[in-house]
Amino acid sequence: MIPASSADVGSTSVWLSPPVVAALVAAIVALLTALITAFVTVGVAERKLRRDFRLEFAAEGVAHQLMMDPEWSLRSFAVIKHHLGGFDDDDLRRILVRAGAIRFSSPSGKELWGLLERNHHLLGATTISEEPGHRSGKTQG
């Protein structure tokens, strides 16, 4: 049998030696730094995501309101793009679909968009029969 000494692995003096204490402090500091960095990164990413979604929802709202004008049941893509600048064509089309719009073509080949709720009678048609006109006689463009 080996006599117990003060240098046993299980004794408190080995666990409280300067190298072990320094290693424990370094590990705790590294863990805290990693946690703080992770929380800050998640917070920044969340703010960016909220800002991006607000932009998307705002664009959908503007598109919906633009197509709710009582004098126009259909709007040309060019006019919509003019009023909702800053989006490439395909992104703008996605916004229009999320806003409840459907796409048509005019006899002259213009891309037209209108809300499904206002153009339900045109479902099934890819090209409308006549160029859309303004009720007061103005042209849309």
Automatic annotation (TrEMBL):
It comes from the Bacteria. Keywords: Membrane, Transmembrane, Transmembrane helix. The chain crosses the membrane at residues 20-45. This is Uncharacterized protein. The lineage of its organism: Bacteria, Pseudomonadati, Pseudomonadota, Betaproteobacteria, Burkholderiales.
